[in-house]
Design goal:
This is Hydantoinase/oxoprolinase family protein. By secondary structure, the protein is of the alpha+beta class. The chain is built from 16 helices and 37 strands.
Length: 681
């Protein structure tokens, strides 16, 4: 029996599954409704369904690797559930108990100035913050010894109050983790049932507030993640891996020790899968748009790799772990249309999700969604997943008509208005990830995927002036496909602030980080190790850093000079100026980073046979674009390379639909992607 690899991405509405046969290269895709009450149910249903479709058996014997993308660990924080952090406590250095209140002075976009901005509630209330005596300086030298007796009192205080998840962040522990490790030993002795996260393990770099919050988020989600992983492991009866936000994967056994690394793992997989698809089709740089049921995630791929950041957040909480730079907007297929107090039409960010879902699902939904608008306008067929899920077109029409009546609009005007607002919400997210980062959106094609991603592709081409939109085969399963394209990857960081660093000191730090990476890859079973170095630098006096890649090889003066030159060039590219030849502005080193990578064999994307004849439609139905009209319907599986479909038309497939508006043409390329362009360009 041939071995197979399976990727499972749990989304808000559907669980997407992709199977790759390692012997034949065959790719099998499927979807199943997500089960929010217990995501493991949808996971197992999807695995069994794809195995049965491939080999007619639900047995897991042939599975050589199983990779999972999930946001289960952080959903309660993203949704601000009242009980999300009720089990959480915080231990910090004596005298620094207000670090969470002080936070940062920066005001979020949209508030104008600080008079209209109120800091969000802290992740841990003040009454669950305890301090322990002891102090290190910024070089890790002990100023005051660790107070063991006070630490034991703190541990017992948490135990007596039932606080079972504890984050520990002591001042300057990035320089020496000794005091934090002693605190963990005390907690293990006095409060053994507690789970503990140390900032020196989670994020070993300076800036106390961000390090504290990142550590607390890790501690908050550890119990949930452990229960979820244990449940899945028991039901699978075999090991599996979990997608990380940095573009790598990690075994489930390791993930329970660092669950914060799985933040936005599903969207990260989507960006990586889309990057491989675009690169194979001859587009090394692209915008990726992942449209789901609840939200849309956008990212930028430059020279084949999605952009990375350490300035991300989970909901309102800053998290400085490395992650693919993704902007998320509440504009998915389930986004709800509503009327503001001023009487204007709004769409999202609230979503109908999978349960009850849009009105057309017939599961009790009562509010009009983006999907209902598409169904009413005929742009989505009256069924999903090849007929597995029937849609109630009449109910969608009644919902749209009722909303239109309250707004004083025709139903068609109301439905197209819903889609127009959703398209502009998505376009604003794309501008945020491109224009605000100094990139011209017109230089990139857009890879549109996810169940709802292709639905607004033509409008986004118009709004943004995009060169083209690329819709991959099985667009609803690209995130699950992406799970099978990524290497094992672990990130390590160490703060070392210096204007004139010693090559020996930097070499020693890098060697230590690479040793940590090697140990992790050995535990994952990799004989081949790849290390990627980088460094964060700034001009002396700046409050932000610029990250640049660092070369391999020995650390000497020439090595330092190469990185300094890269920093000058990157600073000038990002901000329009640099101080390369100005000795008044010294270059300051801040952080050293190492990524340990265990490479895998990626699936091959097969070429499609050419189609010489004109494509033939399979049906017609009434569809509204600028007006109602009888519109041809094509089945994507019937199209070969070179086939061109001119709008108005609709192209349907198992997991998604592409409405081709009048004035647009969709052409299938050699790899089965539909390339949508405006006829005016």
């Amino acid at each position: 029996m041939s071995s197979v690899r399976i990727g499972v991405d749990t989304g808000g509405t559907f669980t997407d599954v992709v199977l790759v046969d390692e012997e034949s290269g065959q790719i099998v895709t499927t979807k199943t409704p997500s089960t929010p009450a217990n995501p493991a149910d949808g996971f197992m249903a999807g695995v069994h369904k794809v195995l049965e479709a491939h080999a007619g058996s639900r047995a897991l014997d042939a599975v050589s690797a199983l990779v999972h993308g999930t946001t289960v660990a952080t959903n309660q924080l993203l949704e601000d559930r009242p009980d999300g952090t009720s089990h959480l406590g915080f231990v910090t250095t004596e005298g620094f108990e207000s670090v969470l209140e002080i936070a940062r002075q920066s005001v979020p976009d949209g508030y104008g100035n600080s008079y209209f901005w109120v800091k969000p509630p802290r992740i841990v209330p003040v009454h669950r913050v305890r301090t322990v005596g002891g102090r290190l300086d910024h070089l890790g030298r002990e100023v005051r010894p660790f107070d063991e007796e006070q630490a034991a009192d703190v541990a017992r205080w948490f135990r007596e109050r039932g606080v079972t998840a504890i984050g520990v962040c002591f001042l300057h522990s990035y320089a020496d983790p000794g005091h934090e490790r002693r605190m963990r030993e005390v907690l293990e002795r006095e409060h053994p049932e507690a789970v503990v996260s140390l900032s020196s393990d989670v994020l070993r770099e300076y800036r106390e507030y961000e390090r504290s919050v990142t550590t607390l988020v890790d501690a908050a989600v550890k119990p949930i993640m452990r229960r979820y992983i244990e449940n899945l492991s028991e039901r699978l009866g075999r090991p599996f891996s979990v997608m990380k936000s940095n573009g790598g994967v990690l075994s489930a056994a390791e993930v329970v020790h660092q669950p914060i690394t799985t933040v936005l793992s599903g969207p990260a997989a989507g960006a990586l899968g889309a990057a491989l698809i675009a690169r194979t089709a001859g587009h090394p740089s692209a915008i990726t748009l992942d449209g789901g049921g609840t939200s849309t995630d956008v990212a930028v791929v430059v020279d084949g790799e999605p952009s990375l950041t350490t300035e991300g957040s989970i909901g309102r909480y800053p998290c400085k772990i490395p992650m693919i730079d993704i902007v998320t907007v509440g504009a998915g297929g389930g986004s709800i249309a509503w009327i503001s107090p001023e009487g204007t039409l709004k769409v999202g960010p609230r979503s109908a999700g999978a349960d009850p879902g849009p009105i057309c699902y017939g599961r009790g939904g009562t509010e009009v969604t983006v999907t209902d608008a598409h169904v009413f306008l005929g742009r989505v067929p009256p069924h999903l997943l090849g007929g597995e899920i029937s849609l109630d077109v009449a109910a969608a029409r009644a919902g749209v008509e009722a909303l239109a009546g309250r707004l004083g609009l025709t139903p068609e005007r109301c439905a197209t208005g819903i889609l127009e607002i959703s398209a502009f919400n998505q376009s604003n997210a794309i501008r945020q990830i491109t224009v605000q980062r100094g990139l011209d959106v017109r230089d990139f094609p857009m890879v549109a995927f996810g169940g709802s991603g292709p639905l607004l592709a033509c409008r986004l081409i118009d709004i943004l002036g995009l060169r083209a939109a690329i819709v991959p085969p099985d667009p609803g399963n690209v995130s699950a496909f992406g799970l099978l394209t990524v290497d094992v990857k672990n990130d390590y960081v160490r703060t070392h602030v210096a204007r004139d660093p010693s090559p020996d000191a930097l070499g020693e730090i890098l060697a230590d980080l690479e040793a940590q990476a090697a140990a992790a890859l050995d535990r994952e079973g990799f004989a081949e190790h790849v290390y990627a170095r980088s460094a964060d630098l700034r001009y002396y006096g700046q409050a932000y850093e610029v990250r640049v890649p660092a070369p391999d090889g020995p650390v000497d003066e020439a090595w330092l000079a190469v990185i300094a030159e890269r920093f000058h060039a990157e600073h000038e590219r990002l901000y329009g100026y640099g101080y390369r030849d100005d000795p008044r502005h010294a270059v300051e080193w801040v952080n050293l980073r190492v990524s340990g990578i265990g490479p895998i064999n990626r699936p091959k994307i097969a070429r499609r046979p050419r189609q010489e004849d004109e494509p033939s439609p399979v049906a017609t139905r009434d569809v509204y674009y600028d007006q109602w009209g009888r519109t041809v319907i094509y089945r994507r599986a019937d199209l070969g390379a070179g086939a061109a479909v001119r709008g108005p038309a609709v192209i349907e497939e198992y997991g998604s639909t592409l409405p081709v508006h009048p004035g647009f043409t969709a052409t299938m390329d050699d790899y089965g992607n539909l390339v949508v362009v405006s006829d005016d360009r």
